[in-house]
Amino acid sequence: MQRIKTFIHDHPHIWWGLFLPVYLGIFFTIEHFITDNYWATQLPIDYKIPFLEGFAPIYASWSVLLFILGIYLILKDGEGFRRYMWSIMITFLFSTLICALIPNGQDLRPAVMPRDNIFCDLVAYTYSLDTNTNVFPSVHVVGVIDAWFAIWHTRGLKKRAWRWSTAVYGVLVIASTMFIKQHAVIDVLAGLVVGFLGNYIVYGIIGRRRDRRLRREA
Question: 197, 147 in Cβ contact below 8 A?
Fold first, then answer.
């Protein structure tokens, strides 16, 4: 117990992580109430995008990226963790607010898996955990942008290998949302807009002002 108290004392920024259970509670509450009578976001272009179950592991690994990055920032960059959490708070809550005000969903999921393999099994399992509602904007896409900005603003991760490998990985995650029929194109575009605007607020406005204040206090 004393070790935990000491760790929290040395890493007070960890308290910002309490937002995550709060967000999950809000999200699953909305998931419970929005099950039908929603705006279907799919467009004709979405039916031209093939179902590629091989992207299922990439889609599923999204939460691992966010978690590992969060742990790294908690241990190595307290200010970076604060800003990472601020961006998640702004973008995730705004996305959830849109879903609450404009109930939405998509009807792109295959009724029956086209093939019998482990990847299709993973897609089916994903469907069982996550409904086809509350897809606009895509929180998966928003999370990728949040992580990408955090990595690019973290001194310990400024090597080109880290930046560009995570950028490529992020593109694959975004593509996976459409290939396994979790999101429509418009969901992805909305996620990009929300992600970039939210992170501009955090790093371009709040961050710059905070940097000036921290320099004055140094």
Answer: no
The DSSP result for 36-78, as a single string, is SS-EE---GGGGGSPP-GGGHHHHHTHHHHHHHHHHHHHHH-H
| Token pair in block for residue 50 | 């093939």
- What does the angle CA 21 – CA 35 – CA 198 come to, to the nearest 5 degrees? 45
Domain ranges of the chain: 16-217
The pTM is what?
0.92
Q: Which residues contact 8 (CB under 8 A, 6 or more apart)?
A: 14, 15
DSSP 154: -
* Digit-coded pLDDT (tens) for 144-188: 999 999 999 998 888 888 889 999 999 999 999 999 999 999 999
Residue 89: C-alpha distances to residues 30, 92, 135, 139, 162 (Å): 17, 6, 17, 12, 24
- HEC string of 108-126 equals CCCCCCCCCCHHHHHHHHH
Helices 62-76, 139-152: axis angle to 10 degrees equals 30
Dist. CA 212–CA 218, nearest whole Å? 10
Could you tell me if 184 and 48 are in contact, meaning their C-beta atoms sit under 8 angstroms apart?
no
CA dist 126 and 137 (Å) reads: 18
- 205 secondary structure, DSSP code: I
